[in-house]
Amino acid sequence: MTSEDTRPLINKNPALQAYYASLESRIGYRLILGGTRHFGYYEPGTWWPFPISKALRNMEDRLFECLDLPAGSTVLDAGCGNGYVAINMASRNLKVKAFDVTERHVIRAQKNVIEAGLENSVTVSRGDYHHLEGFPTESLDGVYTMETIVHATDAKAVLDGFFRVLKPGGSLVMFEYAHTTPKDAPEASRLFRQVNEYAAMPANAEFESDALLSLVEDAGFTDIKVRDFTQNVKPLMRLFFILAYVPYLVIRLFGLERHFVNTVAAIVGYRYFHIHRYMAIRATKPNSAGHPLEPKKVQ
Ligand SMILES: C[S@@+](CC[C@H](N)C(=O)[O-])C[C@H]1O[C@@H](n2cnc3c(N)ncnc32)[C@H](O)[C@@H]1O
Q1: Domains assigned to the chain
Q2: Which of 20, 93, 107, 292 is such that its CA lies 20 to 30 A from the CA of 272?
Q3: Pocket test for ligand 1, best of 26, 145, 150, 151 (most atoms within 8 A of CB)
Q4: Which of 22, 64, 101 has the most ligand 1 atoms within 8 A of CB, as the residue to mutate?
Q5: Residue-wise pLDDT tens digits, 72-104
Q6: Boundaries of each Methyltransferase domain copy (predicted)?
Q7: What is the pLDDT of residues 265-284, one digit of tens each?
Q8: Contact 261/198 with Cβ under 8 angstroms?
């Protein structure tokens, strides 16, 4: 495995680092999701959410389908966490340049890649998706994010960077959250604001309805396709709600929301399920004529 040669710029973001360093985050993700940090994909109407690992891999498989790239293509995993998505992509013969801003995640991802025997297909480095200067212009066939752009402090700059590093005809895939604003539900708005603040998700507050789509379009991408996976993540949101219910009552009683933001998020996520959307966005960087290089499969 190699690291990127250039030392990347990293924005200071103590709130983000505190969120991922918290005991709740470290233990919660490990115990419930085995260290993966994204939702699982279920058929709508599923009630039994186990085994969770199968649903997690299903979601990654959807991402691979959306990328729609031939074997040997090189893709960027921006915000790779512990590397499980990158490992899945590499096991399907993509070359992955994975990076994450949280050092602990980078170290864990590097170990996981070695354990999977995929160090020739995946590089893992520390980096900030606001600063892609270390990646040459038009050098990548694909870029993807799995539930990470919500943390961006300047999502427009991130999208502009993705556009620059992609080759003409390259694919951008983003599996991200959006929402509608609960104007008639002040309690939902209050809890939603708390979650965004304590989990360092400023962009999540901005991603009302189609805001992320507009950013993708404004960056220059075309052929934008959206799939709505909101019903597909519901079984895991329900499980999180059930697990969080009693702890949340205690946390609220003692005013400890700041320290247990995932527990609060589990309650907000399911109680106000109707305001949430889980979107799979796929877009193409057009060639110089302003069109995708070749027609892509309809998603
Ligand atoms: C919810 S986790 C998702 C991790 C991984 N994509 C997965 O699916 O398991 C979000 C990840 O984004 C990373 N992240 C947040 N802001 C970032 C940034 N500015 N640049 C790179 N990674 C970032 C976090 O450290 C965290 O690992």
Answers
A1: 13-181+200-240+276-284 (3.40.50.150)
A2: 20
A3: 151
A4: 101
A5: 999 999 999 999 999 999 999 999 999 999 999
A6: 75-170
A7: 999 899 999 889 999 999 99
A8: yes
